[in-house]
Fold these 3 entries.
Entry 1:
Amino acid sequence: MSIQKLLENNREWSAAAVAKDPQFFSRLSAQQAPSCLWIGCADSRVPANEIVGLLPGELFVHRNLANVVVHTDLNCLSVIEFAVDLLHVKDIIVCGHYGCSGVQAALARSRIGLSDNWLRHVQDVYDKHERGMVGLQDVARRHDRLCELNVLEQVMNVCGTTVLQDAWTRGDAIEVHGLIYSLKDGRLRDLGMAIKSPDEARGRYEEALSRLDKTATAARS
């Protein structure tokens, strides 16, 4: 698709937005006041605002390959800090998706290039949970499971950041959630990991893992 086509599409979108709501852009330019930070995959098939039915300005978004949260990634950490300390979001969502190409590359130990270094974090998730993964004979199920496990681990990484730890210490009411999106039906699934304080992080994590284990056992039987 050419740049000219994108510019044409933009003009049409802008005109349609004004026709529907003449004050749309004046309100949007005045401030952004999202109540939620979305940390998701850069995959073009997972547009954050659209799949949760929110307009521009209603969701603060950070996306990267395989929705990874790394404690040395100043880009991601800066977004989290901005969302928490300046925008005062109440919820942080880590959203993965089934069919993630980054997770697939990590699972297959494929060599892509520079991305291999980034996806090493997802390989570490596999290595941590390898005992449970090897019991899944079907490749598609292993892929789905790693997508889910990756979300749980990244939720824990968000909770472990100094930004969240400091916010919770101050008494800020912030809840971190783990969701996963299906490309097949466009539905989000709650992985049952909602964390509101550092004290409950480990327990919520273990509960979510237990639910995944039961699902995997049922699938094998």
Entry 2:
Amino acid sequence: MHSEIICVSRQGDRATNQDRCLAVERAGSALLLLADGMGGHPRGELAAQVYIDSMTRQFNGAERPLAEPGEFLRRSIEQAHHDIVAAGLQQTPPVDPRTTAVACIVQDRQARWAHVGDSRLYLIRDGRVLERTRDHSLVEELIQRGELEESGRALHPLRNYVSRALGGDKQLPGITLSAPCTLQARDLLLLCSDGLWASVPETLLACLAGAGLLEQAASELGVAAERAAHPGSDNVTLLACRVTE
């Protein structure tokens, strides 16, 4: 399977960029990664980078093709959590850095993804969102229980409260794993931090799949999200993978 993969990350109005994204392709398999270091805890950028490094190391060391992509994601994210905790303890003084995380394996025309926190993955087909991850957040839980309308998300006072993250406590967070999904030509997998999805409408995200020049469209989308939230823009990061065959 052939694909176009584009990463875009913008600092927004923050002092630093604590988001990270990376795509690793090897022997017919691809690993798509995105992390949003949590600014409410020390060294969010450390947690995000350790997550990327840990997942990449495990992917490069695994036999290909992956026999069980879902099990690989679960084990690897758990190991990344332990690596983040260990990295925090090695700092002077010790800290408890945390990050959200989303990861996707693309192999044999199938995708499988997992996430922790409120960074998202969207599967876009024929100009519409076919699937997306559900945030590990208080607001998402309220919406799923019917206690809050989707339109109230942006105004809720606890909209930034994330209920699960990698790092911090030694106890493993709950990891949500998708079922296998067969990809079609022109499908687009979009991984993104909340700096993107919270700032632009979903219809604009869905337009990426049909863009003529994916790199240009992804870059323009990042700028649009940054401008829409100015002067309080968060870091804006997205990773887009479009099936071309």
Entry 3:
Amino acid sequence: MHCPACGADVVEQAIYCHKCGERLDTIGQEYPGDGPQSPSAENDARDPQDAPPADARERLEQGAGARRNEQDEEEQEIWEGGYSPKAMIGAWILSGLVTLVLVIVWAMWVRNKTAWTLLLLGLAGLWCFQLAKLTYRRLNIRYRLTSQRLIHQTGILKRVTDRIETIDMDDITYEQKFIERFVGVGTIIISSTDRTHPELRLIGIEKVKDVADRMDDIRRSERRRRGLHIESI
């Protein structure tokens, strides 16, 4: 028999090694708790209360899956538009009536060429003003609606882009003037929790009813997808 510590030859009945003093009668004995335990033994030794209930784990897994699906969902283009020329039909009609009345009055009572020149210049200025206003609004305003937000762009030389999340929209209404109802244009009014535009007015929208309904559907769908209560929709 050899000492496991120093390798010296010792008798089998020896309790201690005569050379290094190592105790020999405990070799090969196993004590509870000594040595590595298997993973299953470790799991069995754990307190059962430390493990979450099965239904809680399922809810956590479902919540994590919903968040992953939300992050993976792509933003879809829903609608894009701007200021419609039809929104100025009322202004065109009014300008036409003013032009017609002034021409008739001047033709009946005014014979001065200078007055006629001034009249023509004034009418030209009126029509140029209406045309410039239409051009400015067409170039200045642009809207884009996606499945998650409304993008509002303004400016010609300096472009300003503002975004309103559809989930932040609280109410969507639209209004139409008398003539606008005949051509299907109007103004959409969006009330939201957005700090920049708590009330945003989208003017000159063609097919205003369809666009407003589409915005409201997207708003409600996004709130349901985010898990908000129906009372807050």
